[in-house]
Amino acid sequence: MYEKKIPENLDCGISIAIKVLGGKWKAWIIDKINIGVRRPSELHRDIYLASPRVVNMHLKELEDMGIIYKKTYHEIPLRVEYYLTALGESVLPVIAAMEKWGNEQREHFDQAVSL
């Protein structure tokens, strides 16, 4: 079994926030679920820059952390949807602040990337 060489520091709030939102697609996944994109196939389509495997991996991590939960409908064909937990909803203001900051800094980064 894999054992981390450096233990996680969960005494620091920033470390906890990075654990939840770290990774290229987690904040985007949480935001999409919040606006009603709930089925895995819809998430794969909307987050087209990420491979389905990566999206599925992040969904599993977010579920394990209690940020989202999976609801399975026993129909034919089987249907799965993801929803935010109360903990997941509590992170929405952080994601909104990240989006606001990113939008305000877009011109700077457009210029920096074009150099």
UniProtKB/TrEMBL annotation:
Top-level taxon: Bacteria
Keywords: DNA-binding, Transcription, Transcription regulation
Any matching Pfam family: HxlR
Claim: Kinase is one of the keywords in the record: no
GO MF, any single term: DNA binding
UniProt xrefs under InterPro entries: HTH_HxlR, WH-like_DNA-bd_sf, WH_DNA-bd_sf
Gene3D superfamilies for this protein: Winged helix-like DNA-binding domain superfamily/Winged helix DNA-binding domain
UniProt protein name: Helix-turn-helix transcriptional regulator
Organism (species): Chitinophaga solisilvae
